[in-house]
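Morning F.,

Quick status update on the modeling queue. The single chain you submitted on Monday has been processed. Sequence for confirmation:
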Amino acid sequence: MTALAWKDRRDNFLANMDPPPEEGNFCDDSKQANVAWYNQHMGYVDISDQMANSYSMCQRTFKWITELIFHLLDLTVLNSWILLSSCGAKCTHQDFRLLLVRNLIDEAGRSHYCPTLSMLGRLSATAANVMRLDSRHNQHWPAKHKNNIRCHVCSERGHQKTTIYKCAKCDVGLCVVPCFTNYHTKTNL
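Structure tokens below.
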């Protein structure tokens, strides 16, 4: 590696292309040769960085690894757009990113992946509330249970009431009126 620094400006170069010069002071020839080489060969890296940073998803963070991962993700999206453009597609970089995000959201919505409880571990009280209040897929319907079971809402309130109904998705015993609605709409039972 050759490290060049000169005193008139704060310009520094690291180069590994040329053989290292002899020790001592150097004239401006080596500086200009390295600057000319940089301008000739490194333009694509500057353009790539500029294009990747124009729609960057990186947020300011104190962890350098997070910034690195988001920067690599930005470069991956940029290279994908460049490959798509080289195949003849007429799409801007911004439109490509929006299309990519929409396709990822659609694919996640179509996914039937459902982690088991052993994969999730024990849920916190807040997470359990969010899961039972989740109405995106709206599969919470009353269903009959084969035996009498305790109503969860009534038990939380200190009453010993049994019912033959449960929520088909949550598999929790609930009175049809009003406990079923309260369980799925209110955070505090």
